[in-house]
Amino acid sequence: MSMEISNEQLFEFMTKMYSEMQGMKGEMKEEIQGIKSEMQGMKGGMREEIQGIKSEMQGMKGEMKEEIQGIRGEMKEEIQGIRGEMKEEIQGIRGEMKEEIQGIKGEMKEEIQGIRGEMKAGFAEVKDEIKKINIKIDHDIIPKVDVLFDGYKQNTDKLDRIEREVSKHEEIILRRVK
Question: What DSSP character marks residue 137?
């Protein structure tokens, strides 16, 4: 069974197809127009929704700004309070340290006066000892040194006399030997 299609049949078939396609084209155009209309409607709705979101965000932005300003104010007050407390604490510590330093200063002054008293007493003892040593030197040692010096001088004088005598004897001996 061979089926042969003639040109006329082919032409008829193509014409039918063309008309059906033209019909479909119209339907498709209508459907596309419907979709476009729906999208236009959605676009308007979305614009309104976006505007609503923007308005909400603007409101939230204002609220957040106010909240931040409030927090900033609270923090500033808290910092000022802490600063005041720290200042008071530092002044208290400063006062305590001043009192302690004054106490230490007084103790050191007393200690220095005690040492000064001990040194004066020590110097007085040393002075007395020096006086005793000077008296001993003046009364015991100097007279002995004077006696020794006199003895040394007497010895020197005797030696000088003996030397002169020996010299004389040498001269006499030398003359006799010659």
Answer: I
